[in-house]
Structure formats: C-alpha cells, structure tokens
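input
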Amino acid sequence: MGKLNNKEIKELIEKSYNCRVNILKMMKKGEGHIGGAFSALDIMTVLYNKILQHDPGRPKWDDRDRFILSAGHKCLALYAVLADQGYFNQDILWTYNTLNTKVQMHPDEKMLPGIEFPTGSLGHGLPVANGIALSARLDRKDYKVFVILGDGESAEGSIWEAAMSAAHHKLDNLVVIVDRNGLQVNGRTKDIMDSSAFEDKFASFGWEVRTINGHNFSEIYQALSDVPFKEKKPSCIIADTIKCKGLTFAENKFEFHHWHCEPDKIDDAIDIVEAVKRKELAQVG
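output
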C-alpha cells in the first residue's frame, strides 16, 4: 500500500475527533473510561477506515478481518467507531449509562453487531485471538486478527502465555497493537508494575516488533499496512500514545482513566476537543 496523502489524513483527523465528540456526548449522564478510549482512538480510526476487510452490512461475513479490543474498558472508542462505520444507528450511543443499554461499560457481542468477543476481565483478548488465528489457518482463510492491548493490561500473565503460544504456532495472521500511554487506573504503569521494554519482551517471545507514534496517522497506516512484518512470525506494534489525547486539561493524567464528570462540564470539553481538531487539521496543510 502507498502512503496517505494530506486529504486522507485530514479525513482521518475529522473522523477521529468527531468520535471523541460523540464519546463526550455519551458521557453526559455521568462517567466513562475516557482516557484509554481517547489514546486508542486514532489507531481504531485507521484500522476501520483503511485496513480492516469488513462489511457493516454483513457483520458475520466469514472472510472478514477480526478486531478484538482486549482492553475492553476502552469500548467508548469502539462504540463510536462502529456507529460511524454504520454497524448500528448512532442514536444507540446516547443510551450509554442508562438501564438496559446496549452500549455497556464493557463490550458484549450479543448486544451489538461488529463486536467479536466480550472483553471485561483484562488479559483475555490475546488468548482468544490466538484461537481465532489458528482457526483461520485450519479453515484455509486469509483473514487477519488484530488485537489492541493496554500497557497496564500487559501485567496479566495470560498475555505472555498467549504471546509464547502465538510465536510457537507461527501465527503471522495475528497482529497486536500495544496502546502504550504509560498510565493505568491508579498511577503510572512503570511504578505499579513495570512492563516497559515491550519491544524486547515481544521480540524475545519470537514476535517481529515495530514502534510508532500512536497519534501519527501516517505511521499507524504504514505499520498496519506492512503486516505481517515477517513470514511465520506474529507482528507486534508498540504505539506510544497520550492518555486522553485531545482533551488538553486531562492529557497524561491517570485521574482521567475513568472520569466521573459533571454534565455541565461536557460542553466545555467538546469545545476543547473541537479546537484541537482544528489545530491538527491546520498543521496538515
């Protein structure tokens, strides 16, 4: 695949920040895991608009690429992107934080089309993705399986069991993206459970690894376009990101991992996000 041109980059910026606005609108009834949703959103925007083979009209199409959000608490981003793609009516988003909503605090594949697996307990997404990738090989299918992990989530032992298994089985149709924003619910990941040097860890388990800026659309697109990085090896992308990217007063603050917000603060937050979007669009030229 070629490089993104300026028009494509601007379209991705528009989509990503429009999803941020919709996430804030969803939170008008009180709370949500906004920090990780905003840090992972640019990656998901590129995935769904430029990389994944998928069809919102046929969410269970056999040959679709699969995406699993292992860090399921970041699902505000997934809901916003799926609605933007046309998997379900956008009005469903505004039921968030209400009784019997389909857009719950963690995603459930029985509630909405486009969700592959329910992820709430951390560390489950990659093991499940291994099974799906192995199934593709057995069924002689060409689809790929993409997984977003959190860097805090990666303290879970099941992640590393799955990483070892994926390399052993030579799953070159499996791609992990680590959303490395450096923060988790109660502080900095390096202080709570230092899982730094992801590059060395995944490489030592037999993966091919690249590191990118997780908010640079060109870098995200190039890395995702190049997978598998090496035949018969699973691919790992370490994406350096900013917690709560785009909401300037909340960026890089672990207190915004989960935000209990006052409804009257949401409109101000939306104005800030819109201003950041305009700034980023202007920088593209």
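quick obs: Strands lie at 31-32, 66-69, 145-150, 174-180, 183-184, 187-188, 208-213, 235-240, 259-260.
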